[in-house]
Amino acid sequence: MIKDVTIFFATDLHGSEVCFRKFLNAGKVYDADILILGGDLAGKSMIPIFEMEGEYSYFDGDRYLNLNKNEIDKIKKEISDRGNYFLITSREEWSELMANPGKMEEVFNRLMIERIEEWVKLINERERERPIILTTGNDDPQKLLEILKSFERENLYIAEEKVIDVYGYKIAGLSYANMTPWKLPGDLPEEELHKKVMALMESIDDFKHTILDFHAPPYGTSLDLAPKLDKDLKPVTVSGHIIEEHVGSISIREAIERYQPLLGLHGHIHESKGADKIGKTLILNPGSIYYSGSLQGVLVKVKDDKVKSYFFTVG
User: Fold this and answer.
1) Rounded distance, CA 20 to CA 11, Å?
2) How confident is the model over 182-220, as pLDDT tens digits?
3) Which domains are present in the chain?
4) CA 94, CA 83: separation in Å to the nearest integer?
5) What is the pLDDT of residues 59-92, one digit of tens each?
6) Which end of the chain is less packed: N or C, by CB atoms within 10 Å?
7) 200 backbone dihedrals φ, ψ, rounded to 5°
8) Residue 284, SS3?
9) What whole-number distance in Å separates Cα of residue 12 and Cα of residue 10?
């Protein structure tokens, strides 16, 4: 008998410290049986806090602010909660980093790995019973996936191009996306993505109990609408209104149409929060506003081969 389960799914945290802590607390808050964190775990930016002779300054986007020691922890938290990494440095050292992209990437990767290690430590301290399933996303470097795999244990699963069996449900994970204008580490031409998607689907023998944790949404749904961009990567507008277009994966849509899994959990397109159906398959994208410190998620109740209910959460 396959267990009735409640799943909490969130995605695209992009390094937000406060959103991760909220995700980790969601099991107890919502009485969820399974926690699934979709891709794009890493932050996007590194913010310097300048130190000189015990005095600190910080650029808040408009101007430099002088800080005392009591204000440093507050600023660190604000930076981390927005998903960025902070670096205590001098103006001279920062200038050297700016002039050396290789060194800048090295420091950024170190801070990224340190935060992921902190998150795994929190999982070990606070949640050792509920199954937690993580995947990376197209924004995340391969190094991050390698680090995560080294932390896998009894209730912490890294579902990258494999299927995890939890309470009788097959949870299939895939971090890759079809090509974006930014040519990110996990972007693939559609024909290459197609091979990965189909190889994973062909490894599954029970689609009535299969849940897709695919970072990219399927093409042509309410989950994959994003602003249309011009050649300078700026939104196209008509009469002041932003024009949208479908940017999801054709391969993922084809897989869902052909195999009709129980449920699809997706992310990638932050502004396309919503629910849709492809045939009998319910597909969900909780969206993301990680930079605000608010965690968007979706709570799904599954009974055997049916989705009984779902509702979106913000907290």
Assistant:
1) 10
2) 999 999 999 999 999 999 999 999 999 999 999 999 999
3) 5-44+112-314 (3.60.21.10), 46-105 (no CATH)
4) 20
5) 877 788 888 878 899 999 999 999 999 999 999 9
6) N
7) -70, -45
8) strand
9) 7
Kindly indicate the confidence band of residue 148, based on its pLDDT and cuts at 50, 70 and 90.
very high
- Token digits for 34? 């399974």
Which helix (H) or strand (E) is 71 found in, with range? helix 69-81
Angle CA 101–84–81, to nearest 5: 170
pTM check: above 0.85: yes
- Per-residue confidence at 114, pLDDT binned at 50, 70, 90? very high
Q: Which residues contact 209 (CB under 8 A, 6 or more apart)?
A: 2, 168, 169, 170, 262, 304, 305
Percentages helix, strand, coil for the chain (3-state, rounded to 5) are 30, 30, 35
Residue listed under structure tokens 């002041």: 240
CA of 40: how far to CAs of 20, 51, 137, in Å? Answer: 12, 31, 4
Nearest-5° angle of CA 98, CA 104, CA 105? 145
What's the CA gap between 35 and 236, in Å, rounded?
37
